[in-house]
């Protein structure tokens, strides 16, 4: 999972560096006797170098950003411009700024290494350690294939170019090139997804999970190989090295991480972490870099591992990212990438044609092997064709981590300047072309929450937990949602995990805030009543229900982003939304909220899972109280079934409720006269299959489920049936069936006032219907 280079067996060598003492750091400024001598001071020289790199990289980025060029590619282009291929040929610029004999080169290299260390530290902070442990089987498969496929083809190229008496240095150089070209760095993937604004999409999450698996597999292979070599040299040394590594990891992920959680507990909600903690964390990260370098590891490993040990999100993770990300990525990382790209020497490309051919074939074969294997694996997993292409390109992308490998190998003389230049140019072309192609193939606005995995109730495994995201706007929404959650029949084998999200409209000039409330804390403010009620419900259901509470304060037009992002992140199966109307005691509409209605419509269009809209008129609350009081009382549910995926999802939920013997379920199947004589299509076969156990009494052993068939050949007949049973049930469950025409409801859509509820949902929610029953309108997840 790590992004820094693997351990390098440094050889014995002598490097001569001439340094003047005492060091000349600060100049006298305008009072300097010899103005030209200002560049002999390290600090003014470093500042001029940073300004030059900053200006060139940002000018390049502003010019080429409209065509989709990423900031990393702009920085690499800046290095080529300032390097020996272009401006570096000018004697004045080369001698003043980047003379190899000047101490300023060592200073800016040190600054760039510090910047890259901080970049990896922040990448570790932003990553979720649990992702590696909770990845899907598909992500594991893609991650392993994305590593092995290019490695196999790269080794084939290696064998084709292998010479009879090939030197060990050349063999090592080529094998390192094959290894780096086979990698899929999660840090690079995360940066690309973030810049393309698709990090929270299903596509982005799958790519990041697969990259984490690939990185983890690479680490295992690299450290196993390194440990084997150490064992062959000295078993005692190998055991000591492994013991130190395990101890270090234990201290980081047990001791240090525990301290982080303690700081989080001591920090009130919405309040920033104390500044002293931020300083200490950064110092620990840098100190761990020094520690790992002492044990023959890359000094970049330490900061990255410390970053991984820090819990992501607020208050610590977000505070570190907020304070350092802009400065590190905009200044220090730009220095690292630009100075690395300045080392590209185009004049050396043709010094050895065999090396040139090997590098080009390795780059091309590795790219196509990785992209084709990832495309096949994702397309085989029911991902749309264009999305599969975009996914394959993302998994084949290269970036700063691969560049850092080549820089490290060049610096320790394991790789020639020619090979470094060719592979670095390959990274530049890769990072330039791939983002442009991905933008062409994948529209982030339309596809941000597109889902490829089945996240609905119907396809849950038998004993899987039901994950529900319950959204609340006003205090009166809480009892109704808890009433419904209470009759979903959670059990020890199939418990409920409810993420309660309180949505607050952004007022004035406040900044949008998303708060993840900690358990057993004293919540204050506008979310107090809502969160308290949900946690009391959790306590009453001892172990059968788990509540996670959140508050989102954002503008109404962005609220759907908070809901869909949380649903994706928590792998939710069902989003539960309150209706936009509030009824008075006499049955008339008291309040209509257009903001809530627009939000509900937006969620129905974009949700990555199934959605339910709860229309409550108060009857369910009274029945819930009786359910709690006596085991003999009951709650009556009517499920109107027409057919189709939304109705199958609604029936699956109704069956789950009927597992409670106190719930009486009646399934009313509306059919036409030709229903039993029509030829069966695939959709009708699926309907018949899900109705079978309900129809023939195989579902319940306590007799609390009834199946009825009602004939309807038109919309008015369906309306009369609904009116006749409106007072017979406490809760109606119907499928939305948006855009689906049927004989049974012909003509109803023309009179629909609330199309987001479907024809039957609109009919049951109508003010013309005199009933006190609540209604749940269900839409199954849209799978691409």
From TrEMBL:
GO terms for molecular function: antiporter activity. Keywords: Ion transport, Membrane, Potassium, Potassium transport, Transmembrane, Transmembrane helix, Transport. Gene3D superfamilies: 1.20.1530.20. Residues 634-781 form the Cation/H(+) antiporter C-terminal domain. GO terms for cellular component: endomembrane system; membrane. The chain crosses the membrane at residues 38-60, 67-87, 107-127, 139-158, 206-226, 238-256, 276-295, 356-383, 389-408, 420-442. Residues 55-440 form the Cation/H+ exchanger transmembrane domain. One of its GO terms (biological process) is proton transmembrane transport. Its main location: membrane. It is a multi-pass membrane protein. PANTHER family: CATION/H + ANTIPORTER, CATION_H(+) ANTIPORTER 4. Belongs to the monovalent cation:proton antiporter 2 (CPA2) transporter (TC 2.A.37) family. CHX (TC 2.A.37.4) subfamily. This is ARABIDOPSIS THALIANA CATION/H+ EXCHANGER 3, cation/H+ exchanger 3. It comes from Hibiscus trionum (Flower of an hour).
């Amino acid at each position: 999972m790590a992004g820094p280079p693997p351990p390098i067996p440094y050889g014995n060598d002598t490097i001569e560096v001439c340094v003047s003492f005492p060091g000349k750091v600060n100049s006298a400024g305008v009072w300097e006797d010899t103005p030209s001598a200002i560049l002999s001071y390290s600090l003014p020289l470093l500042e001029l170098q940073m300004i030059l790199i900053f200006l060139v990289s940002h000018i390049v980025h502003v010019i080429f950003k409209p065509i989709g060029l990423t900031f990393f590619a702009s920085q690499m282009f800046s290095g080529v411009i300032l390097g020996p291929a272009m401006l570096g040929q000018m004697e004045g610029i080369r001698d003043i700024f980047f003379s190899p004999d000047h101490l300023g080169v060592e200073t800016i290299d040190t600054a760039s290494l510090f910047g890259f260390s901080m970049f990896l530290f922040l990448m570790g902070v932003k990553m979720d350690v649990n992702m590696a442990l909770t990845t899907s089987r598909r992500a594991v498969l893609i991650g392993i294939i994305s590593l092995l496929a290019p490695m196999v083809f790269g080794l084939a190229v290696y064998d084709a170019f292998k010479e009879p008496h090939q030197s060990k240095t050349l063999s090592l150089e080529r094998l390192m090139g094959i290894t780096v070209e086979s990698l899929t760095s999660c840090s690079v993937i995360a940066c690309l997804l973030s810049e393309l604004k698709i990090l929270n999409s299903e596509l982005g999450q799958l790519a990041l999970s697969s990259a984490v698996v690939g990185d983890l597999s690479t680490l295992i292979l690299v450290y196993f190989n390194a440990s084997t070599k150490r064992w062959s040299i000295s078993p005692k040394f190998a055991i000591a090295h492994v013991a130190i590594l395990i101890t270090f990891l234990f201290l980081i992920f047990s001791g240090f991480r525990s301290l982080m959680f303690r700081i989080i507990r001591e920090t009130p909600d919405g309040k920033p972490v104390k500044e002293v903690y931020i300083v200490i964390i950064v110092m620990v990260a840098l100190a761990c870099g020094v520690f790992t370098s002492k044990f023959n590891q890359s000094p970049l490993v330490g900061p990255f591992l410390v970053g991984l040990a820090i819990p992501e999100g607020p208050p610590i993770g977000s505070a570190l990212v907020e304070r350092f990300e802009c400065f590190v990525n905009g200044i220090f990382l730009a220095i690292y990438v630009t100075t690395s790209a300045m080392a590209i020497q185009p004049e050396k490309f043709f010094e050895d044609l065999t090396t040139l051919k090997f590098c080009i074939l390795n780059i091309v074969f590795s790219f196509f092997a990785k992209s084709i294997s990832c495309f096949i694996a994702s397309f085989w997993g029911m991902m749309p064709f264009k999305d599969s292409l975009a996914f394959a390109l993302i998994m084949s992308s290269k970036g700063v981590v691969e560049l850092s490998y080549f820089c490290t190998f060049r610096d320790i003389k394991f790789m020639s300047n020619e090979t470094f230049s060719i592979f670095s140019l390959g990274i530049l072309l890769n990072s330039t072309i791939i983002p442009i192609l991905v933008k062409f193939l994948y529209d982030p606005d339309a596809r941000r929450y597109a889902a490829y995995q089945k996240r609905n109730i119907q396809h849950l495994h038998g004993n899987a937990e039901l994950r529900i995201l319950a959204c609340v706007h006003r205090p009166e929404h809480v009892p109704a949602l808890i009433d419904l959650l209470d009759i979903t029949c959670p059990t020890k084998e199939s418990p409920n995990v409810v993420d309660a999200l309180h949505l607050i409209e952004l007022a004035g000039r406040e900044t949008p805030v998303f708060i993840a409330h900690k358990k057993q804390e004293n919540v204050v403010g506008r979310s107090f009543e809502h969160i308290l009620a949900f946690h009391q419900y959790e306590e009453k259901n001892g172990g059968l229900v788990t509540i996670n509470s959140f508050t989102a304060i954002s503008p109404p037009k962005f609220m759907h982003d908070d809901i869909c992002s949380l649903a994706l992140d928590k792998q939710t199966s069902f989003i539960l939304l309150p209706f936009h109307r509030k009824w008075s005691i006499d049955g008339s509409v008291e309040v209509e909220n257009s903001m809530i209605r627009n939000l509900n419509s937006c969620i129905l269009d974009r949700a990555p899972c199934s959605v339910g809209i709860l229309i409550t008129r108060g009857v369910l609350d009274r029945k819930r109280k009786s359910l709690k009081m006596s085991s003999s009382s009951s709650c009556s549910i009517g499920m109107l079934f027409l057919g189709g995926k939304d109705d199958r999802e609604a029936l699956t939920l109704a069956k789950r409720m009927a597992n409670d013997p106190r719930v009486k379920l009646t399934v009313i199947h509306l059919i036409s006269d030709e229903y039993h004589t029509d030829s069966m299509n695939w959709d009708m076969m699926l309907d018949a299959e899900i109705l079978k156990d309900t129809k023939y009494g195989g579902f319940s052993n306590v007799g609390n489920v009834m199946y009825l068939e009602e004939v309807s050949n038109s919309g008015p007949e369906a309306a009369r049936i609904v009116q006749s049973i409106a007072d017979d049930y406490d809760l109606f469950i119907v499928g939305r069936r948006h855009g689906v025409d049927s004989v049974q409801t012909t003509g109803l859509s023309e009179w629909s006032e609330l199309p987001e509820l479907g024809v039957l949902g609109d009919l049951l929610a109508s003010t013309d219907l005199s009933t006190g029953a609540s209604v749940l309108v269900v839409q199954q997840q849209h799978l691409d």
